[in-house]
Specification:
heterodimer; A: 217 residues; mainly alpha; Cytochrome Bc1 Complex, Chain D, domain 2; two-stranded antiparallel ribbon; 33% helix; B: 425 residues; Sulfite Oxidase, Chain A, domain 2; Immunoglobulin-like; 2 domains; 9 helices; 29% strand
Chain lengths: 217, 425
């Protein structure tokens, strides 16, 4: 490379470095096509935003549920083994063994539709049609006592469905409710008279050991 | 280090505060100064590795730990979950030191298995309430100006979830191992959002994974713009498959479930989505039956990693107590340690970088005379938050919360050095 070309190349490089890359857009990437957005943007919100056209009945949902879902979630949504329980549990949330199902716990029906559509059946995601998802959602709402046996769930009536536990959720308030965890000078000396062992993991004995693991159902 | 005046002072203070006896100290000194009766064959005999050639340079193109460290691995608890593809394993905290978690030991949590994604076919889309929806290839992302390297802890909100009702698992790997600390390489999410142009009514973002669970979470736009990152690197190399290769989002200080792996899309919206992982899961059920939601921040927490049930004490005399502290609200300011179950406390020595929203290493160098100990650690962050006891936490949350158990951990060290997970009054 001649000396003058070297100088010119350096000048170009310096100009590149001097470009205020952060000031504006980089122009990197490209515009997403409507078909591409449609292929991935399948999420649904409680107000019904994102729901596709379609409908499904409780009756159709029962058949689909038995074929597609019951092997893990149980014929009646009671859950097989450690797979999630989907039905029942009303009135259990204050008990020692709360059963957090769609009917007893989940705040919004849209979550059921969204999750089935994006991730179910487990290991075969995105294999159900939109009408199938409407029908299975309708069946699960029916099993939880939210809609009647002859109900047909549609895009239009979806946001009218309300789940019983919606009002029990509130936004994080730890900074108020747990204000006392902020302390200036935690105790350092003679903080309590005594410390006695009240419980031991060993008594339960569920820690996995090398070469074996304990199964507890 | 032995000549560090601070170390001497802290050692004396520690024992003084506990009223150590002269007899105890004598015993400790005797055991450490024991005379060697016969010459040590490890010294007097020529070892194979001293005589013969070792491995050539090509023996291990990607290096692995010594075979003598093969017990230092992630472990899982089979009874916890229904299938291995939607499950969790645990970082072996008891066997690690410093603050950085080696890539192969960072705990895993998947909801539909860890997919193997061809980076040339991976795309990141930004859509929703933006001026122009955009698609990026991995190569596009790596050309963005403003690349950063930052260390953050990631803790699963369910870390310690099995311990709400009482001591259950014997080992800090199992009680506290859903945490890791990594230096990430990537770009601020803000850079990408600015490129797409967020509309004025864009108040939330939703990262989405490309895996078979298509994981989603809602994140407020303020957090997205403040310090979230989109990253492709961890500890100097590409993300591991199980940590989101080729791309994940980093949500510093907030619960690990939000750090969506295999990141393929970020949608901007005007409301939260209330998806499965932020309604039926990752909400905190209180004793009165109500549920706290959007409990994103991980409160200050600490654990003594040694001694612990998997790392018992073996010797009387000089010992190093070590542990980790972290806070999702800021920087660890102080860690106190007790060996008498919380009657008396001593401030531990922090060592290594003390970074905001990062694991912080602490030590107490001490002499052990063989007495039974109830060891605890208590973290404080720079907001003045003090890690509560488990009972203090249960008093305000009840027993059904599952998530966000940051209560103080107790290890009982028996006089033979054996260590167990206990609860105390």
């Amino acid at each position: 490379m001649s000396k003058s070309r070297k100088v010119a190349a350096f000048a170009l490089f310096a100009a590149l470095l001097a470009t205020p890359a952060l000031a504006g857009k980089t122009g990197l990437g490209r515009e997403a096509l409507p078909e591409e957005v449609a292929a991935w943007d399948i999420d649904v919100r409680p107000d019904g935003a994102g729901l596709p056209p379609g409908k499904g009945s409780v009756r159709d949902g029962e058949q689909l549920y038995l074929q597609q879902c019951a092997s893990c979630h149980g014929e009646f949504g009671e859950g097989a083994g450690r797979w999630p329980v989907l039905v029942g549990g009303q009135g259990s949330l204050k008990s020692e063994g709360p059963e957090k199902t769609i009917g007893s716990f989940w705040p919004y029906a849209s979550t059921t539709f969204d999750y089935i559509k994006r991730a179910m059946p487990y290991g075969n995601a995105r294999s159900l049609s939109d009408d199938d998802v409407y029908a299975i959602t309708a069946f699960l709402l029916n099993q939880n006592g939210v809609v009647k046996d002859d109900f047909v769930l549609t895009k239009e009536n979806f946001s009218k469905v309300r789940l019983p536990n919606e009002q029990a959720f509130f936004d994080d308030d730890r900074e108020k409710a747990e204000r006392h965890f902020w302390q200036k000078d935690p105790c350092m000396k003679n903080c309590k008279p005594d410390a006695k062992v009240t419980g031991r993991a060993r008594m339960i004995d569920v820690t996995p050991e090398d070469g074996k693991s304990i199964k507890v159902e | 280090m032995d000549h560090d005046p601070q170390f001497q002072k802290s050692r004396r203070g520690f024992l003084g505060g506990l009223g150590a006896t002269a007899a105890g100290l004598t015993l400790a000194q005797t055991s450490s100064a024991r005379a060697q009766a016969k010459p040590d064959p490890a010294i007097t005999e020529i070892q194979d590795w001293n005589r013969y050639l070792g491995d050539g340079v090509a023996a291990n193109p990607y290096g692995k730990p010594s075979k003598f460290e093969k017990h230092v691995v992630r472990r899982d608890v089979e009874w916890l979950t229904a299938s291995r593809e939607s499950s969790v394993n645990f970082t072996p905290l008891h066997a690690l030191d410093g603050i950085i978690t080696p890539n192969g030991l960072c705990f895993e949590r998947h909801h539909g298995g860890a997919p193997e994604i061809d980076p040339s076919k991976h795309r990141l889309m930004i859509n929703g309430l933006v001026d122009k929806p955009l698609v990026f290839t991995m190569e596009d992302l790596k050309r963005f100006p403003g690349r950063v390297n930052k260390v953050f802890f990631l803790e699963c909100a369910a870390n310690g979830g099995m311990e709400w009702k009482g001591a259950q698992l014997n080992g800090c790997q199992f009680t506290h191992g859903m945490v890791h600390n990594v230096m990430y390489t990537g770009i601020p999410l803000k850079v990408l959002l600015d490129e797409a142009g967020v509309k004025t009514n864009g108040k939330w973002v939703m990262p989405e994974g490309a895996d078979s669970s298509a994981m989603t979470r809602s994140i407020p736009i303020e957090k997205a713009m403040q310090d979230c990152l989109v990253v492709w690197g961890m500890n100097g190399e590409a993300l591991r498959q199980e940590q989101g290769y080729p791309l994940r989002i980093v949500v510093p200080g907030w619960e690990g479930n939000m750090w969506v792996k295999w990141l393929r899309r970020i949608e901007v919206g005007d409301q939260p989505w209330h998806h499965r992982e932020e309604t039926s899961k990752y909400t905190d059920l209180l004793a009165d039956g109500r549920s706290r939601r959007f409990t994103w921040i991980m409160d200050a927490k600490s654990v003594v990693t040694s001694p612990s049930p998997q790392a018992p004490l073996k010797f009387k005399g000089p010992n190093v107590l070590s542990g980790l502290a972290w806070s999702g609200r800021g920087t660890i300011r102080r860690v106190d340690v007790t060996i008498d179950g919380g009657k008396n406390w001593q401030t531990a020595r922090l060592d290594g970088p003390v970074l905001p929203l990062s694991l912080t290493r602490f030590y107490v160098d001490f002499d052990w005379d063989g007495r039974e100990m109830l060891i605890q650690s208590r973290a404080m962050d720079d907001t003045g938050y003090v890690q509560p006891t488990k009972d203090e936490l249960r008093k305000v949350r009840g027993l059904n919360s599952i998530y966000h158990n940051n209560g103080i951990q107790t290890w009982l060290v028996r006089s033979n050095g054996e260590t167990e997970n206990v609860e105390i009054s």
